[in-house]
Amino acid sequence: MAKVTDYKNWLSGVDLENHENVYQLYNSVSNFEGSGIFYTSKEITNTGNIYHVKAEGSEDTLLLENDENRFEFLDFLSSEYTDAEDKDIEKWYKLKEEIGRVD
Hints:
Blueprint: E1 3-4, H1 7-12, H2 19-31, E2 34-35, E3 38-45, E4 48-55, E5 61-64, H3 67-81, H4 89-102
Parallel strand pairs: 1-5
Antiparallel strand pairs: 2-3, 3-4, 4-5
């Protein structure tokens, strides 16, 4: 089990094929908790916070080494994996859920 800091590389090995998984990853990293197939923990150090992100099916753990990295990751996730206006993943997810109910 490797610990990696390159989130773009880590994301290539994670199942983000559906909007549910994208939202669950965003939710997990935002709230430092388990959500779907993802689990994020927060480690408090003398120099700041480190975030450990795990995904079922992936042996590697993503390390976000500080709050700035965590916000960069969330921004990248919303811009590359959603078509959310203003990078509002909550609103995007609710819309996807409503569309799913109509179909």
